[in-house]
């Protein structure tokens, strides 16, 4: 099974622009687990997409999309998974591919950011998320999905968008000014919100998308849904704007927790990934 159910010539590693890396891991998940099933659900949904992109007017898959074997789960802890993801992402970067992670819980992002930061030292990260994820530690580990943004902010500049849930600890941390964070209300209430967010990004960027940034009306299949989120159109608008201004060196889509018999969320995730691939292969 590969992303898009592509014929071998379009899925071969040697000619691929993108390397899709499934990471079926959710050891630190809270509330509802199940995101370990996300990568398989996304790949299955992608096999049912139209591969002609109606917005961009092209068949993005012809750029080449390789799908790797899933990262082997290490039950010894999320720090071990971080190392495993970092190594795989580093390998595809050496071969000048754009890494595309399929989560899995949000903790898997750290290894990818570490690898991309090593390749592109001036890296910035854009996080689309309902939750701030800025706890220093949670449930005994600093590598929890609830700490991912804190760990990222320790190694490179971080811009958040869509936030609408945080602890007091996270609110205090944000007041320190180290992270630029835009709430969902900011996006919904300001007509030029995308321009204002993009003003804080330049050069090399990694995008991490927790699907709960979307309102549960659009994306019910997440482990920690939050009301008051943004829509498909708003997510697409922001990513389109960022991809046209910056050099996106990799991205991930995480926290899909599939609902049995309800494939709309799986399909949204797959189409979102394919649309982003389309943006990244547009002529600059």
How would you describe this protein?
The protein is α/β, with parallel strands linked by helices. The chain is globular. The two termini are about 30 Å apart. The chain is built from ten helices and eight strands. The mean pLDDT is about 95.
- Estimate the strand proportion: 15-25%
Largest beta-sheet details:
8 strands, parallel
Average pLDDT: 96
- Give the class from helix and strand content and strand pairing: alpha/beta
Distance between the first and last residues' Cα: 32 Å
The H-and-E topology, N to C, reads as HEHEHEHEHEHEHHEHEH
Low-confidence spans:
none
Number of helices: 10
Share in helix: 25-40%
Q: Globular, elongated, flat, extended or rod-shaped: what is the shape?
A: globular
